[in-house]
Amino acid sequence: MSAKRKQTLGVCYYPEHWPRERWETDARMMAEAGITHVRIGEFAWSRIEPEPGRYDWDWLDDAIEVLHGYGLGVVLGTPTATPPKWLVDSMPDMLAVGADGKVRGFGSRRHYCFSHEGYRRECARIVTELAKRYGRHPALAAWQTDNEYGCHDTVESYSKAALEGFRNWLAQKYQSPDALNRAWGNVFWSMEYRSFDEVELPNLTVTEPNPAHAMDFQRYSSDQVVAFNRIQTEIIRAHSPGVPIAHNFMGRFVAFDHFAVSRDLDIASWDSYPIGFLDRDTDDEENKLRYLGVGDPDNQALHHDLYRSCGQVRNGEIEGRWWVMEQQPGPVNWAPWNPAPFPGAVRLWAWEAFAAGAEVVSYFRWRQPPFAQEQMHEALLLPNAEPNEAYEACRQISAELARIGAVAAPERSDVALVFDYESAWAWNIQPQGRDFVYFDLVLRFYRALRQWGISIDVVPPEADAVSGRRLVIVPGLFSGTNMLVEALATGEAIVLLGPRTGSKTKDFQISEELPPGPFGRLIDLNIRRVESLPPFADVKLKDGGRFDGWREFLVPGTGTTVHRASIDGHEAHVSQGRVHYLGGRPDEETAKAIIGELLRESGITPLDLHRDIRVRDNGSLRFVFNYGPETVDVSAIANGAEVLFGEALLGPREVLALRR
Amino acid sequence: MSAKRKQTLGVCYYPEHWPRERWETDARMMAEAGITHVRIGEFAWSRIEPEPGRYDWDWLDDAIEVLHGYGLGVVLGTPTATPPKWLVDSMPDMLAVGADGKVRGFGSRRHYCFSHEGYRRECARIVTELAKRYGRHPALAAWQTDNEYGCHDTVESYSKAALEGFRNWLAQKYQSPDALNRAWGNVFWSMEYRSFDEVELPNLTVTEPNPAHAMDFQRYSSDQVVAFNRIQTEIIRAHSPGVPIAHNFMGRFVAFDHFAVSRDLDIASWDSYPIGFLDRDTDDEENKLRYLGVGDPDNQALHHDLYRSCGQVRNGEIEGRWWVMEQQPGPVNWAPWNPAPFPGAVRLWAWEAFAAGAEVVSYFRWRQPPFAQEQMHEALLLPNAEPNEAYEACRQISAELARIGAVAAPERSDVALVFDYESAWAWNIQPQGRDFVYFDLVLRFYRALRQWGISIDVVPPEADAVSGRRLVIVPGLFSGTNMLVEALATGEAIVLLGPRTGSKTKDFQISEELPPGPFGRLIDLNIRRVESLPPFADVKLKDGGRFDGWREFLVPGTGTTVHRASIDGHEAHVSQGRVHYLGGRPDEETAKAIIGELLRESGITPLDLHRDIRVRDNGSLRFVFNYGPETVDVSAIANGAEVLFGEALLGPREVLALRR
Amino acid sequence: MSAKRKQTLGVCYYPEHWPRERWETDARMMAEAGITHVRIGEFAWSRIEPEPGRYDWDWLDDAIEVLHGYGLGVVLGTPTATPPKWLVDSMPDMLAVGADGKVRGFGSRRHYCFSHEGYRRECARIVTELAKRYGRHPALAAWQTDNEYGCHDTVESYSKAALEGFRNWLAQKYQSPDALNRAWGNVFWSMEYRSFDEVELPNLTVTEPNPAHAMDFQRYSSDQVVAFNRIQTEIIRAHSPGVPIAHNFMGRFVAFDHFAVSRDLDIASWDSYPIGFLDRDTDDEENKLRYLGVGDPDNQALHHDLYRSCGQVRNGEIEGRWWVMEQQPGPVNWAPWNPAPFPGAVRLWAWEAFAAGAEVVSYFRWRQPPFAQEQMHEALLLPNAEPNEAYEACRQISAELARIGAVAAPERSDVALVFDYESAWAWNIQPQGRDFVYFDLVLRFYRALRQWGISIDVVPPEADAVSGRRLVIVPGLFSGTNMLVEALATGEAIVLLGPRTGSKTKDFQISEELPPGPFGRLIDLNIRRVESLPPFADVKLKDGGRFDGWREFLVPGTGTTVHRASIDGHEAHVSQGRVHYLGGRPDEETAKAIIGELLRESGITPLDLHRDIRVRDNGSLRFVFNYGPETVDVSAIANGAEVLFGEALLGPREVLALRR
Ligand SMILES: [Zn+2]
Ligand SMILES: [Zn+2]
Ligand SMILES: [Zn+2]
């Protein structure tokens, strides 16, 4: 169930980059293409407040009026990602410091330290001014706080402000240095502290710092993002009642806890650049080449599901909202290489998002700027203001949205895949094998589910989130709460745990009962040894498939069943009742096989899909996507359903919409 | 036409490294090998001025006398690349600062910041002393200022002196902060400045700085090299009338504008290390292996042509002079690996330079030092003073020079290839695809021309330089002046533009008319999209060949002709009248095919050469070079001409000299 | 001959990590497994002295008593590798500074600068307290100074203390700046100093520093390790008469002169992690895969032989002692990937060490800690105190030791392989080809000897060490003393020199007589040219085999014999009388062939071994090891000998013990 909001298009717009005379035309063209939402303002501090305390509202008043005149809803960004030079010069210690000890200077963006009290006060001031002036404006559709928290590795700062903040945070958490010493195990290597003021930041140590130290610093840093954001949301709610607040998260970014920030957001949104992300998603060149101009078939989808989940944190499943705040319209400027989208890809991306329940898909950006850092980033319009390809795609998409009366109607999935930010930090701090990456591990299971045609919920490791499911996948969960274990124990879902799940306490210690720690309640098993393996080695399984890079040596109890074993004679996949444990990182073949078995065990019927085909349900609608280079016959999927648009002989990067 | 100076050999000599008693023998052996020019002094500051203000001229007086006694001409270097420790200690802020913010200390060479006024004053002092003492000495053949400006990445310094200098430079260029803000597009990301004193250097920013900011800093830095050099040349001209001034440029080095520095030079020279450079020229291991001991067949040649052009900046085509100031005689010490030259390679290199019109080919260095950083760098003599291989090569080459009465007589070529330092900076700042390197792009076209047997002029993007040609190639030219466009429009040359040519204004903004900007006057075309592609992808062309890494989407006007298209259906090579545009980075096959067509269109007859063979004309002489491992029959080229030396069955790394 | 001490097992134990109640059980279990030696204390400073000047001995008294109660000998570590935070805060400049100029902070271990006088005083104080309290305790079996000097690249520090120390050291060595200038060749690039106070540390120079400068700094840094260690050994000897002193060296670590430190040690020991080291030993993936869970078959063995040699420096061959202080028991945490040992590997490692004459093989560590940096490092016990695999291996090994009455009885080998720390520094400073690594060069010859079944002595470049041998191998020896040359000249051994042997003077200058410098007395030869080659090139030899990466151009005298030549026509391997010179870096095939010839020439009968088989003699015992994955029939080796344990059909990672 959901509130079933209408699905629509948006765009990011920078009126301050263009002559006043042009705005009218821009607004008209937006409306003509079916765009309804326009994000503005998020980098405009130097135009809003050109000198300390002198505000210039005229241009922004005008811009909002012009947009309003064409019925466009305004998404107003707070400009705190780009403090002007005069502000930085007034308190230079607001700049963040990198892990290398260097001040990160002015000259681009995000040049601030989240811990700096002075900068927080300045942000509160400018947000208050903005919220007072526009908080009740009829054009206002939503707020966006700041922009892409953490972009360019800016969550962690190793500044004096951060050091002081961290010491206070530790004092509050542990109350006594002895408690901290015990929790971290500081007796090891004589790292014991006599006072919180002796604690340093975990950078520039001779060799790696204590992982518990690094973990607490990551938690502290994440908490500063939450606090920084909350200052803004509290001010906005006070001055702009009823207007939803969003932030635009990023792809493959885990340096702060997005669920925690989402507690203060009405709308979770993210910035989706499928081609730009492709370079990071895989090092498989055959796949990269196949999907060069369309992106990994599962990466965007995973983020959609994750951020839909974030959007439900504050207001629940029914009122929860999620958007794509920035959608790639053409080649970007920031990846190592920047290919053009394949024909059809721009439209496919929009429908993949709508199929996942997105309310708004908003393009970045309206018109390609001729100047500055992003001049090579394409937009809906060319630098000379002529429509570019994606502008035409907008026309088509908005017509289709209207034709099918599209609404955001995501339903709770039978399948939940647990995603946990602390786990991402933990395995980043302690990979134990160079290529062990938490996000990649989750993606392997997500991909397998998608390959079987499943619509998935990606959820936090919480009791509510997993209860009432038929299948719950919990890969690599650093630590587990008793409540989560209890929920899994009392539910009826088939559960897949591991690898590494439950292997640590919250204090980053190995569980006293040995891994899987508290999950040992669900399955009689312990893990006495793990090994990581270089890419040229692997663990072959008896019935085909393999683990790559990671393998655990399971000691299962007598009540367990062995489903898979390695050819060197070790248990690889065991179960007891509804609960399975997987002792390694599965390759694509193995992941797909296991997930297929578990789906059937859960009573869910998987679809047998072509490698390039993906399927997604939104309410009563089913969408079929072809990410590949060839036409694929998907009539078996379409079977019996009403075709809303598209064809069962589904062309490359084409979409088929069905009513189930 | 040229002044037809005699061609001859030189050597770099460090009398201060050897006992006084040895100098006489050295001079005699130089003369015996046919060497006529000896460069000395350029690292000897600590011997010339062992303590502040106390000069020791005796040894240098003697050294010059000894050389003079054997009829050797002296090339006297100013010692400003190696300020002594006492000078650095007297003003430590003269040290440059790296982009990482670290001071670049004493202990090797080039430890100074070009912007530092105090160091400039010290240089003026020592150069004045030198020029006064030796400026009219009869042995003096030429001066060399400093040594290898910019070696070890020393053009850019991020020091306090540079910051102050940069702010003044910007103030002079833009006159008002608003003008700077508009030119750079600082409204983007609130980077606007209220005063020039707010501008910082473009290093240590959170993410990339504004490309316009980076570009102006590169221009500023280049200007400091020009100014630094001019201080010396003005002093020298005052005290040493009529003696030509040289500087020794480097290979594949573009961090300052060599044409601009050359305005103050009578002789452009460069330091040619064919084997050392091979590691950077290509990552094609088959080619690297084939040319391991001889170097890339086209890289040295391109530099010869470029620096010949530099040598003509101040005094024109007739009086212009160029030398190889340092020529590799054996293995060097500084490349990742340092192979020995193949038999014949040392002689081939000399003749390749002479064929390109070099007046002097000077070896680095006379005798291999047993000590310090370059002890593994071979020389004409072994450390124990016995002749090494290259000494014997000198004997042979000087005999051949005498036999054929060689003079420097380069003629203006029908073919001009435009080379532009600002373009190298621009695409370094904004490659848009990781492997887009301007120098490499130029080399692709240069190589194709050489493969067709053409002698080429490599010229600056100026009207004079392109006029009167039959074929002009303009690859990747960042920006274009109206005068250049006018010259191309009114000339009769076939012109090849692109890729990326004319895509930016001088302010590093996308041209208002879209690329190719002002070159759109020559051909009815605009470029609405570009894409960069990783090495495992490419753009295949319909009739064979391909673009690698870079492709543009052309929108040609109705009056244009399409010569090539991609198999995915986009125009790749179009023309209108005499003017062609190429929309991608051509692989070797494609470059060769296109250049072949354009040569024929220009009425120039290409030669059909074996892959290892290169041909070069100097006045009435034609030289044929075999860079390969096998004997090649070149009698078709020799056909009818008088053989001066060499054979038509041309052995590996052998040279054939013909009179046309 | 040796003192024939009993061979036994040890373990590293951290009582401070576990509850007092557990210690008794631990001690009992140790004794039960046959462990006799327990190392404790080396990271416990914060527990011994929790606040400045307040000592807490109770726990350590107790721990020693408990161990003593079970008859266990205590190896007591000084805790100077982990100074507590309060000490660091009391003098922050005791922290080392990295080559990048950054202070290396508190938060892990080894956070100190060897040059810091204040820290040396603090170490003297804590060691005095420890030595006074426990120096005559009956349980005390040995001392260990500090822990793994130099781990995490901590030998070199670029601190103020180091700068001052270095200047003094230079003043003492050279007496006058002129002498230093001459020795370093500072006239090159005007690097001359007028006073020792002008000399800087060799980091952060614009380009590479003078190699002589770098070399002297490495010597200085090594000397500080020696001096730092000697402060401790002198105090210990004063307060703990008769108790031997050890230090635990590392694998593949050469940053200080271990022979020099060993002058103050009674026992040389090292920390052997065969799997962890595998990643660095080779980039041959086929080999890495074959030996993934057992380690390189020759790397540990080489270290055993090297440190056995170190152990004889102070007390001579008979009284010399060596241990493995830390032996890997399972996966570790610190390599890029951390595979588990193959079945049998743990036992094989122990026997390889005992076969090489180790007195104690001590496991690291007793019980896997659940906390801090090494929580993923396995131990004899699991974190939950259950025995892990290696505990069971200990039982078996100690039973076997008892059964055969094993004693350390290494005999002087007929074959000496010279190892020299200065050479490692020299070729690190001046590799001349990117992949030239001294350790790797030595390993190539060592491996060839092992492949022929030879037990080897790895010795310093000293006359005593090489005299009385039948075969002496001297690869890559930077410089040579007259005494060494004299010893080789007057002995009767077959000698193999080169490549690079004798190529420099101690001042890092090329020998006046050209390489091989003083070794030219032994063979009439000089080397006029060297070349380094990239991995895709090589030098093929006429009768098969090749040099990779390095080749010298030999000019042999008339009295020499040519044994090998390259297919491009250069001498590659020549000899005169007993002395051979090899002019390149041999590949495995070539090294094996040459060593085989030299063994026969020396009258030593090589064994023809399977690729995975190694043989080692200890006194009258012979051990045969199978490092490979298949069973190998070694009955030809066993022929006639009494089998102590194991079988002639030797299984994977199995050991066969024979009495000869
Ligand atoms: Zn971003
Ligand atoms: Zn240079
Ligand atoms: Zn260590």
Automatic annotation (TrEMBL), chains A, B, C:
Top-level EC class: hydrolase
Transmembrane domains' residue ranges: none
Chain sites annotated for binding substrate: R109, N147, W334
Chemical reaction(s) catalysed: Hydrolysis of terminal non-reducing beta-D-galactose residues in beta-D-galactosides
Record domain Beta-galactosidase trimerisation: where: 414-604
GO molecular function: beta-galactosidase activity; metal ion binding
UniProt keyword annotation of Nucleus present: no
A GO cellular component entry from the record: beta-galactosidase complex
Superkingdom of this protein's organism: Bacteria
Active-site residues annotated for this sequence: E148 (proton donor), E326 (nucleophile)
Keyword field: Glycosidase, Hydrolase, Metal-binding, Zinc
Protein's GO biological process: carbohydrate metabolic process
EC number: 3.2.1.23
Ranges for domain Glycoside hydrolase family 42 N-terminal: 12-403
List of residues binding Zn(2+): C113
Protein family: Belongs to the glycosyl hydrolase 42 family.
Name recorded for this polypeptide: Beta-galactosidase
Annotated organism of origin: Oricola thermophila
